[in-house]
Amino acid sequence: MAEYSALSIIRNALSGNTNWKPAWRKPDPKPSYDVIIIGGGGHGLSTAYYLAKEHGIRNVAVLERGYLGSGNVGRNTTAVRSNYLLPQNIRFYEHSMKMWERLSHDLNYNVMFSQRGVLNLAHTPAQLDDYTRRGNAMRHLDADAELMDVAAIKRLMPIVDDSKTARFPIYGGLMQWRAGTARHDAVAWGYARGADRRGVDILENCEVTGFIRDGDRIAGVTTSRGEIRAKKVAVAVAGSTGHVMRMAGIDRMPIESHVLQAFVSESLKPILDTVVTFGMGHFYVSQSDKGGLVYGGDIDGYNSYAQRGNLPIVEDVMSEMAALFPSLTTVRVLRSWGGVCDMSMDGSPIITTGPLPGMYLNCGWCYGGFKATPASGWCFAHTIAKDAPHELNAPFTLDRFHRGTVIDDKGQGATPRLH
Amino acid sequence: MSAIRIASGGRIDRSRAINFRFDGQAYTGHPGDTLASALLANGVTLFGRSFKYHRPRGLLTAGVDEPNALVTVLRDSVREPNVPATTVELYEGLVAESQNRFPSLQFDVSAVNQFAGKFIGAGFYYKTFMGPEFGPLKGTRFWMLCEHFIRRAAGLGRAGLAPDKSRYQRMNAFCDVLVVGSGPAGLSAAAAAADQGANVMLAEIDSRFGGSANWSGETIDGTPASAWASEAVAQLAKRSNVRMLNRTSVWGYYDTNTIAALERVTDHKPMGASGEPRHRHWNIRAGSVVLATGAFERPIVFPGNDRPGVMLASGAMRYANEFGVRTGERIAIFTNNDTAYGAALALKRTGASIVAIVDVRRDASEKARHAASECSAELLTGYAVTATRGGKMLDGIEVQPFDGQRVSGAARKIDADCLLVSGGWSPAIHLASQAGSRPVWDETLQAFLPPQPTENWVGAGAFNGAFQTADAIAEGHAAGLAATGGTNARKLTPPMVEGFAGEPNPAPVFEIKGKGKGKAFVDFQHDVTADDVRLAYTEGFTSAEHLKRYTTLGMATDQGKTSNVPGMAIMAEATGKPIPEVGSTRFRPPFAPVSVGSLAAERFGDLKPERLTPMHDWHLEHGATMYSAGLWFRPMIYGAKGETVEQAYVREAKVVREGVGIVDVSTLGKIAVQGPDAGEFLDRVYTNMFSTLPVGKARYGLMLREDGFAFDDGTTWRLGETEFLMTTTTANAGKVMQQLEYFLDVVWPDLRVHVTSVTDQWAGAAIAGPLSRKVLEACVQGTKVDNDALPFMGIVHGTIDGVNVMICRLSFSGELAYEVYCGANEGTRVWEALMAAGKPFAIVPYGLEALGTLRIEKGHVTGAEIDGRTTARDLHLDWMLSKKKPFIGSAMMDREGLVDENRLQLVGIVPLDNRPINGGAHIVEQLHEDHPMNSIGHVTAMCYSPALGKYIALALVKGGKARRGTRAYVSDPLRKRFGPVEIVSHHFFDPDGSRMHG
Amino acid sequence: MLITCPYCGPRDVVEFTYQGDGNRTRPDPASTDLNAWNAYVYDRVNIAGDQNEIWQHSGGCRTHLAVTRNTLTHKISSVRSTHAEPPAPPKPARKKPRAKA
Asked: Which member of A104, A269, A280 has the closest CB to residue B143?
């Protein structure tokens, strides 16, 4: 398949744009593969891509229940950052950040990663100290972070309410300039195209209905498109982890599925250059290249597999937006939607071998799966290929909960809705 | 296109003029006009520029589905961008401007984009702008450079910087039946439900109730439909069980029939009345809902179909019948169904000439033929429009014979200044889609019909596919009854409806592929063309969702109301699959855009409540700088003139160590734990014993979470055999309460214990320092407070200034200290009495900073150390872990991850350069200022210690216990603070506690 | 989403706090079976369908409720107090016509 470039666009345009090829094939399933990846979202597709690219494992199928990228990779608010507190998370997400910086070239697909910065606003001196702890933790692990004072924040975002009389006045902020946003769908499509070009079969509308066992070992799956066997079966279905693992006979997991809503406003001329988070509550916003403000807040707070939420969170999110940007109350919400998140018991993910022989598990991404997409696939591919985790994902085991080696960035304990 | 106001007809009041401005130019209109109808009546044809190609655009519709005519409405300096001119009611002094054009609407330099159309079709961004892999524009830099310009070119309206001063209001409402839409079906449903005695709410998005009755031109039982509707509305308005909301867009269908609606209260007025909100956000809990939301007409896709002057037939009919505006002189019609013939008749009645009716069908119905001859129009059946002519305004069309698939033969030119298009109708199933399963494709209507409900709603009228007014009224009646479960129904006499009502069943023609050069638009606002849809097909983006995401079809401000079905039809043709197999996008809230302000409502400007202690005003009057702690406000320092924060807290803390100070502790969480099993309950909740605590004594307690990590600490006082008063940290009061309630309700329902939050019932003041007892002796009546009467951790009851008080001798500062509690209403009185009694002893009030200083000197922990990741052992509180009994967390606290020697443990830190090191600084073994690495922990709290005469800090450091007495470095690259430190015990001051026991 | 509290009647979800999987049983306080404790604290049924859950009417009577709710549709099929027999449900108080606005 031809490389994408400015030249290819011109050449195709001159021939009426009829010679483009499908971004990925739509093959029929083969009876067996070396590796099956359940889940055609960002993580499943990137895993397939790195299996082929880094480990030469090309006899791979990605199984997607609906259309490719129909889960959270196409439903998130597109922020990419590595501004975590705990070293295990910083190392992993910073590795991901470095992969993002090269991703468009690597994939020959413009994922529009724009390093426009992610700014966390602090509203009390104690909160700023807390953010400083985090920023310093990042700096000690090779990630970038700096503090911003109120004047600099106002210069960066003239629409922000910097008044001292605000209910929660801004006291300062923690900025990660290398962080930013990417075009979410493009990430799924770029990985799909890259994996496909390396021989991976992407099987859409292929719903897994059960697991095939060979003794104790997982040896394949039954699907809506027939039985498919494989030496290794990898699960990357964040949002539906509980549901899929139940088919494998594992009926309890350290995960709850929660619905997270997101919102986009009508398109506006550029008014917000960075990603910004409000510190007294939970609110994050950026402006897309099309001009819409893309924003969100807390999960609804109850278990759900429905991609729809309820009004209380809608009202919470909007009131935080109005508090931060009191001139944007006349701006109108255009669309809202919901995605189902795997909320883990410590707010950190799981990338591991097992829990059954022949099985590999990638789940528990909470709010944060999109930015992890490159590193998650890269680490998961390593784990599948080598039957052992890479040191970056070694802490993200399934048994860490029982052992007490939790990675609890927010310090909330085993209450998933609070992570 | 040369639109004019006709002499009579419509809902407008020609006797009054309204002045308004658009793009700086003054116009007049009439009450009843929208900005769109008034501008049209003034001969304005150019309303906006499209998103990507900046093409000139006129009006396509007359309603909420308008994709082209977006304007910014200005009120003083407050801007409201992206409002369809079709939904802006005219008011005196209205100022609006067009968008997305530079320098002007007439001449927009970015219109050059359209000539690059071939190169910037769907998805082109993904294939380029990646830039070089090496050099100064490597990585993401080249893309970000390009993006800078792309962002400036994109976007529609401009939002303002001036804060919105409007008020917004949130309303809760409850009703038995909510009727959405007040066309004939909705009015009939509301009347039927109201007849059954139900509480009915009727919501209409428009300013005028009546829906299509306002413009259908029909008569119902001999009266004009608009008058019939007015009468029906008047009847409903008389009923006490009906609440009617116009200008109200029902936009969200949430779980358990919770409906969200936006009422635009003052948008149509020059100025709202005093206190009147701009918008109301309604939360309506409806027993059942009648959806009578009608249908949207959709265009046919053909080359040049976006030229100003091309509009939907129903839009032109509304302008004619409802607003008294003739949209052109020489009007052509292009249709695939009979309804457009009604528009032809309506326009004919305005005095326009209907130059041609171009119908893609080989045969038109008898009714249609009759209508065509009635308006003396040339009827071209088996023809299609294949091109439009004109510049920024239509002056003619080209038609060619069409066999249902292809055009052929010679093009014929027809002069026309207005082309009315009808490509069939799509029921407005948006709300149903939010509360239903997949919509159902109907071959006859060539449209998606409502899905099976998953919530309690019934549909009626065009929403259901019942387009004839008589049917709609009958369906509405039935729906109103069904919604109430009514049985004693008045039998509906079917109304006599007269007028031209064409069947909406269209020929399955969605696109005309002409040989002409013009682009054929599917999504007008986002400039998605039929070729873009085919490009998406070629590249494999064939499912409805991929089509939408790859081309942005249906993602503009109109959310695809006119474009979704044509787009899917073109994809269906490309894939050779029937339309329903391409899929249907699920509609998501909101149905129409909703202001952020309305959703924030009362919280706009006042995000969260302020919690103030009873002594708040006193603190302000005495120079306190207040500090926001969660929702609470607490004094940080009581600074004297010219004092820095550090000077103030050092002075305050020093007084506590040497004399006496007083601090407001009312914010501590306070929970009454009462009942025969209260002691047993506390034994299970705390790591240490409370059942053995004598009455009249207090004890410091520690709680863990179930997972074995530290949770909260505080003192709990035994006030009686079966009564305890628990105190918690300020931050965790709510969480602790919830944990206690959970265990009592869910885990140990057999325990006879009741817990009550009494945080707000008690005011609390701590007085601390060697002279504190003398202060109490000077003001406390009714009890002694000497060491015998009130030993360490003892509790006494007495009065201060006649107010009942409870005094416990306990110490957070490490000094001789007491907490004095009284009823919240008397807090200031007792506080002032303590201040008066303390005056001879030079008592000073102290704030959080001094409180923090005193506790750091003592090595006491707070939320900075009990941060949800530390264990009792990490904080050297293992002496509090009882071995005699199980407690919450006891089974889990010894797991390997919680007992690792290398965990972060609490230590003291002394900077050897005696300069401050702030919270959040890290600790390292080896200093690398330029490339910080290998953090071993972080500083949690810091102060200048007046008692020790130096800066000290608390920190959590890996394996901290074993590092006491060793050297390390502070590494704070964010604040550029580096330097040597010594790691010491966290007990800096008076480690054996002799001062507080004294 | 409305939840019908047995004490307060149907109330909006905003008044309630989700307290997690209702299928868990806390081990005996004295139990030292770490597996049982771990399962109780960390493992969830998290079913796609009807699920037993605990909710607290935190913005109302503060009772904990055992709720059966479908996680795919959010439909609630039963609500009861976690420990007491529920009282007779309150009669809906909105039969009398409401004055119009």
From this structure: A104
